[in-house]
Amino acid sequence: MRLFESVRPARLPAVPGPPASFAGRDGFADGFVPAVDDRMLDVYARARNPEDPLELRDLWLGRVECELGARAHRAAQAERWRSATVLRTVEPADVLGSRATVRFVKELFNWFFRDDLYGELRPQATHILSGGSIDEQAWGLPQTLKDCIRFALDMDWYGYSDSRGRRPVREAVAEYENARMETPAYRAENVAVTLGGTFAVSSLADFVLHGAAPAGSPALCAIPNYPPLVETVARRSQVRLVPLPSLDGRTSLQPLIDALTPDTPMILLQTVGNPTGAAVVEADLARLVRAASPSTMIVLDECHEWLGPVRPCSAVRAAPNVIRVSSLSKTWSAPGLKVGWLMADERFVADYYEYASTTFGGPPSFFYTVVEVLARMERWLLTGLVTPTAAELAEFEPAYGMRLGPLSAAYRSYRAERLRREAGLTALRGQASSALARIPARVLEPHYSINTMVEFTGWDDSYRCFRDLLRDSGVSVFPGILTFCFSGGVVRITSSRREQELRAALGRLESAFAPASPG
């Protein structure tokens, strides 16, 4: 049996046209500064036990239900808010340093998906722009990678393996990551294949923070951020949330640097913010690494670092105390496969082997061919390769039975799909930004990612904004509170849908803000 002997035609969806012109920048924001507002403080001030995350969640939801009035769905929650009184004074630092805050946001995140969007409110949701992932049926896994899955299945390649992943796969990932670097820094010994990004961060938190002194300095989690990632760190260590401002597509790391102590055990940082789409600057990252103690492990979540300008990664990302996490969930449209990798110092990865073999055994060997082919072809794209030669064919083991002609056809298909997909998703994001800027909102134009942050000016509560927009337009947006944006009507929309669906959803939002016709 030979890999790529039967290559399916590339799936090449039409690239959407350019967005409608929008004169001026009145509908766009230059930046975003996370803050803890009075509404957030008020919930903590009224809680009988401000360390109870479920009470905090119910008070927040109760206030929303109370303010919805006759349109409320849960009278008991509304009454709980009405009966609550102010019991204490609370400062923003109290909120950012509380363990209850992290769990409260995670419980609200769970409620949003389980009880509201896909629960009681599902009949209202005509268009869902709150998912945070790609419409796989429109922009899914390239056909070449699907052929890899079929091949692995036919070969019965799903047995036990090295707990860090099969060595040829790790070699391919190391070569790909070296192509992203200003200076090559990696070998197979720097790579561990993982069960996706969320699992990788969870396992790293467990591995790094296990046995940490409970009275030591807290781990630092930059916000905005993804609640499951922050919660998994908070389960193992004290945590301090550190708001990072974004300006002109760049995220400042100065607040993280200021928060460091010599015994800070871990930093969790997204290199591209969710939902800001703003990127960390390499020079700022170098300052952070220099300021941190060598014992402070800096975990970089790189999963949103795509759909933007290609920039080389500096050598600082290969520092001994830096761990980089990637997954197939965003860039390759495969969140359900739960596959990815981490890059770290050789000694760290060697120690991680024992943790992996004890805790989960190893990554899913069934997907090794996918990861290897993906890593090699992505490297070829980065280096400008158009047609593979005998040298590229020699990168693969004889077990694949591969021939140069089929490999060339498979790479042409992969290259065409990847380039078309990137162009299409970038165009959809531009359409969304342009349309949203025409309504009473401030759009933080993303430089990366499939998400766009929008602040609707008529709301001071992002969850209330979600409820009102869902009722009035049938469009679901993602409340900013669920990414630790603790102020205003900030929401996130995901534009990676079918063009017709996205246009319809944006049109509904625009109609919801249109002035009522006289008469």
Overall residue-averaged pLDDT value: 93
CATH fold category name of the domain at 148-383: Aspartate Aminotransferase, domain 2
Please identify the structural class as seen in this structure: alpha/beta
Strand line-up across the major sheet: 3-12-11-10-8-4-5
GO molecular function: L-aspartate:2-oxoglutarate aminotransferase activity; pyridoxal phosphate binding
Cofactor: pyridoxal 5'-phosphate
InterPro entries: Aminotransferase_I/II_large, AspAT/PAT-like, PyrdxlP-dep_Trfase, PyrdxlP-dep_Trfase_major, PyrdxlP-dep_Trfase_small
Pfam families: Aminotran_1_2
How would you describe this protein?
The chain has 519 residues and is of the alpha/beta class. It has a domain at 148-383: Type I PLP-dependent aspartate aminotransferase-like (Major domain) (Aspartate Aminotransferase, domain 2, 3-Layer(aba) Sandwich). It is built from 18 helices and 17 strands. The chain has helices at residues 38-46, 53-68, 75-83, 92-96, 99-120, 136-139, 143-154, 167-180, 197-209, 227-234, 254-259, 282-291, 346-359, 368-382, 390-393, 404-436, 462-473, 499-513; strands at residues 31-32, 127-128, 191-194, 219-223, 239-243, 246-247, 250-251, 266-270, 279-280, 297-301, 322-327, 340-343, 441-444, 451-456, 475-476, 478-479, 490-494. The protein has a 7-stranded mixed beta sheet with strand order 3-12-11-10-8-4-5, sandwiched between helices. It has a 4-stranded mixed beta sheet with strand order 1-6-7-9. A hairpin with a 6-residue loop joins strand 13 and strand 14 (451-456). The protein is globular, with a radius of gyration of 24 Å. It starts with 30 loop residues before the first strand and ends in a 6-residue tail after the last helix. The mean pLDDT is 93.
